Automatic annotation (TrEMBL), chains A, B, C, D:
Keywords: Isomerase, Manganese, Metal-binding. GO terms for molecular function: L-rhamnose isomerase activity; metal ion binding. This is L-rhamnose isomerase. It is an enzyme of class 5 (isomerase). Its EC number is 5.3.1.14. It comes from Quadrisphaera setariae.
Length: 389, 389, 389, 389
């Protein structure tokens, strides 16, 4: 077990989790978006808040952007601001769902003009990538139908393939296209990229630099997500995670809050395939909504939860596991996995942080800085950033 | 079958469906609220639009209000406007979820001040009822928790019981309290009134004028809704329906759009118990969101869908059904039900409308009036009504 | 509409639905298998019962076998018996889940000996195909895990790919391999072929004669099945349907009994792609359990339900639909679909049957034959066929 | 924390978990029941196996019976055998689902003769209770419908109420009636006692000695079970638990295997209300199927899992929790709960066992006894007990 502990520490020291800029702005449900004093009013403030998470955890060195939510005049300036704060710009997310033109879809829209507009937006996002040093174009489409018959399911797939090909053609050689799937919402009858199979088929058609994004909240009830992880790794096309958690639909709660055992199983599948290593090409990101809880502490808790699940996954005695599996010892094999899960790894992670010159408890350390009070006092005037802004 | 047809026509002539004022304003998802030219800017315009539905279907003579969405200075004037348009004010819906104070709940909030505020809002709604002649106070609470441990599940039930009792005490003798339940959303871990059992327990504790509201989109996946209808009727506490339809969560689509067979089964349970008659005390309402489709035509289609399902339910040969059931003829009994469902009742309803001096096809007739173009041209300036307004 | 009616009649006259031999034996749940007098005691009697369905509907000319449930000494004799009864042998289904050896899986089992045994069974099935003239090898595997950690998810995929390749290599040139997927059951944690994506990936790896089987009851709650149909047709890999219906899990009820509108949407997707034509290569089969209802009438009702859904799908005015879709008329497009769905097609199908020399109502006509009483009286002694037999 | 640990140890020392006799016999799915050498052939051997679990855990002193599965000529002899083995007979479960007469239901059957037979069976079970000293009559009914229209939903509720009243009248003064609910299976369209609301309504109508049984696997997907626990405790009608776990439907896996965090939340709700104490009247039972894993070790693991969840629930700092809840500190309150959950309690439980003269690791200690090999060698001949036996 000592060896496993040392290996775990080494692996954990390398793990990084990307933060979403939009987690620091306001978010909510269709019923209400609650506001909180101190919420960022622009992408610069979002990056500053994100940097607080990295400062206290040492594990969150990148910030994803969402365009046009994070539209700025000078992306070089934003990248420089990030560098000043000790972080870098990560993936760029396109947003083709908040313009009245996209009422019936973007890349799948029956209207060719709107499809062209959606393609152009993606090319603009690629331009932002060039200016910020980002290499991942992350695409989640809200495209879908609310009513049976509303549009032709198959024709929409053809339009989608065509639009994605145009976007893919616009990528630089060192860039990737990451295509996310989602079971439902905001469309309520049919979604154009509803499952990993659809996303993978499009990626395979596009080329080697297209991969699938797995958002842990984007599946049908009961879906075995670690199985999907295993399948996408087997196909060599797991590009990124959007971590969060859910009890019902796409609840976007703090990762690990709803089902920590599932998060562990996912990370165990990742570790078993060596995909936790930086060389794997899997980008581990958060995608959450802090509707009622404070945002920076929520992100810190999320990073810690991913670290704890990863630590447990690294402590699985894989030799013993393989032996039990091979011999058909059902309860024994399950027991090996549960032994790791039942281990309290909070001390191990605190030791790691201490060895890195970080606070043992990032959540408490951040609270002690008074940062939230400071931004509440300072950020007066202006409009708080939010999903719709 | 001739007799059944005549009886069906007589019953259908009496059927009324209440319309929600908010269906005529904008609505959407957390991702986007699309706007449409001509959308009402105030409750008066909403009532006028609702009256169009009644004018063409003859079956939608009441309009529900939502407070504060439908706040006006003079409710007598609003009621008079409704009368001028040929409709009346129906249920009054309280709204205690769109104020920053309600972030952690309304009647269940841990803070006594906020609970008192929520009670006061309900008393204000009762006042609106007095001014508009409404007798139904409809309560749906967004109260719930996003995280395990966030609050005490049982203490919240106690607070809820206390708050509801205060509201109930404020009712006039001819008023009812209707308590709606909902499986989830906007709360993502626990909802304080999540199922019919919880709603019924509170209604039983309150007294005879408290009844349950069943929203067809507010159940766990797979729930047999007609069974719930049967249970609530057996308990004498089915106060009202909120009709809509859903494929996934609370999609709020046009009733009958997702599963017309389920709507028929629900109406068959209603008809079997005689609860379709005006004397039953069951208020049949719509509660829908027309996010991408035009709103008045969406409401007309909804009314027609309820009428078609009711007509089919009225055509069930209940003698033959009972005989097959009693004799244990599984396929025979199912066949009797399906015979009614498979009948095309559109002609029968067109005949009914013609006999009432109404257009045979209300959807086409409304389209021919040019009303939508007219309001798009006339309603310039002002802010369109919407969920948040 | 007259043209549509004529085209519909022509297409319906060509439609065939394959019957499962096991639907005529006993089936049940884990709680109880109820027995019925007259249930077949061997494959010959099953074929005779299946032939009754074809005799009265004219639309069910093939019978699928399940090996070893339908093990006989002389398959030539069974095929000849089928011919005498006016039907032919359809797909051969392998069964590698009812031997104690398969407790931890068949093709995915960690034990190489058991994997080899499972491959050998499939080769034996191919031999049955040669003797009966069958060209479809249909594979559904019960392989999966009940507990996390029980076996390695990814290693099982590798074993599966290897085993399937061995089976595929054993096919004759005119034979196809059809791979079915299932969300869960009998495995309760992970299933080795749980979704269409997994099945399709294996089929793509195998070669052009491997296609996916879509069982309508084998999906996660809320899955849009017609979307999956569209995807598999687009990929050219929809090999067959297993029709049935479900409210909850894999309930295996009569097709169209739980959600007739869904069945219509599926058939509309099929018709829209021309996949209802015999040349499409899609084999439309039933796979149901008649646990409490009589079996032959249950199959007759099922065939009629598929015919009714197909008839409605053929009546969709596809020109009007395309026009409404292209113009973004959400309610109009939905309305075109619903017009077809709301049409009562029972008369049209009765006319078709009459024109074919068949009874207008096959269900009533079969009941009138007294066949059920006859077999109940004649089939005395022996063990009734059942899933476990 | 020291205080909490001491209190936890004291409470854990009193906790008892009742074992189901049927968990030691064979069980399976509709697809296959696998057999294992050494499986009991009669109720006496089942009790002996159950006693092994108590011998190693010290926490499982009672065994539930299932009638007629556990039919014996002399119940006094069975009770004496249990006493010899150091355990007692717990609840008696009626079984009215495995006789051909019950095809269309038992207490809800349209046929009065069959309803009377089902009542008589329950009275016979009460007689078994008298002979064995059992005080809990546990009723789970498989009653329900597979097809819409098959029977009248409301009439079945009336028959159910009548039958339950007859059974209740037959109880001795010190006996309780425990009514279990289940979402679905084996009925696939409607179940007559599908939810806690229905069960509670019947219990309230029966009288004070009728309470609800909550089986953790008997809910719709996504149901918040700890909320139901809180509701039933608030109503004073939580009579018993059937513990197990599930990923999909009623999977009947080892409790805590699928979602250990959910089990902890349930136990936390129990502990918060003091319902873990023997005086609470809540009977904590297991109800599981060990289809592919060895049965006695599976039961030992289950008992340990309940103990671990309870230990964590007892370690929740409820003062700190209440303070965070009252002050609206969402993340703080959640953090208090998670602190307890993340604690590794295996050492604490090992200490408890050691202090009680029990093995620190019951699972390993049982394996070391060689009992399984012994029964495999000794129990030759006869028919293994199983669900159907």
């Amino acid at each position: 077990m000592t060896d496993l502990r040392d290996e775990a520490l080494a692996a954990l020291a390398q793990q990084t989790i990307e933060l979403p800029s939009w987690a620091f702005g306001n978010s909510g449900t269709r019923f209400k978006v609650f506001s909180t004093p101190g919420v960022p009013r622009d992408p610069f403030e979002k990056v500053s808040d994100a940097a607080q998470v990295h400062r206290h955890t040492g594990a969150a060195p990148r910030v994803s952007l969402h365009i046009p939510w994070d539209l700025v005049d000078d992306y070089g300036k934003l990248a420089a601001h990030a560098a000043d704060e000790g972080v870098t710009i990560g993936a760029v997310n396109s947003n083709v769902f908040q313009d009245d033109d996209y009422r019936l879809g973007s890349l799948c829209n029956p209207d060719a003009r709107i499809r062209a507009k959606a393609v152009a937006h993606h090319l603009a996002c690629i331009d932002v990538m060039r200016q910020t040093g980002s290499t991942d174009l992350k695409i989640w489409l809200a495209d879908g139908l609310n009513y049976p018959g509303q549009d032709d399911l198959r024709a929409r797939q053809d339009r989608l393939a065509e639009g994605l090909a145009q976007v893919y053609a616009g990528l630089d050689a060192d860039m990737r296209l990451l295509l996310e799937y989602k079971f439902f919402e905001p469309a309520f009858y049919a979604t154009d990229v509803p499952d990993w199979g659809t996303s993978l088929l499009h990626c395979l058609a596009l080329g080697e630099r297209a991969s699938v994004v797995l958002d842990t909240g984007h599946h049908a009830p009961g879906t075995n997500i670690e199985f999907v992880v295993a399948q996408l790794l087997r196909a060599g096309r797991l590009g990124a995670f959007d971590f969060n958690s859910r009890f019902y639909a796409d609840d976007d709660l703090i990762v690990g809050a709803a089902d920590p055992f599932q998060l562990f199983r996912i990370m165990s599948e990742i570790v078993g395939a060596g995909a936790h290593l930086p060389t794997s090409g899997v980008n581990f990101m958060l995608d959450q909504c802090h509707n009622i809880e404070p945002k920076i502490p929520g992100q810190i808790r999320s990073v810690m939860n991913v670290q704890e699940a990863t630590a447990k996954a690294l402590l699985v005695d894989r030799e013993a596991l393989a032996e039990a599996q091979t011999s058909g010892d059902v309860l024994g094999a399950n027991g090996v996995l549960m032994d790791a899960y039942n281990t309290d790894v909070r001390g191990l992670l605190a030791d790691l942080r201490e060895s890195q010159g970080l606070p043992r408890d990032p959540y408490a350390a951040f609270a002690a800085t008074g940062y939230l009070d400071r931004i509440a006092a300072e950020r007066i005037g202006g409009a708080q950033a939010s999903w719709g802004a």
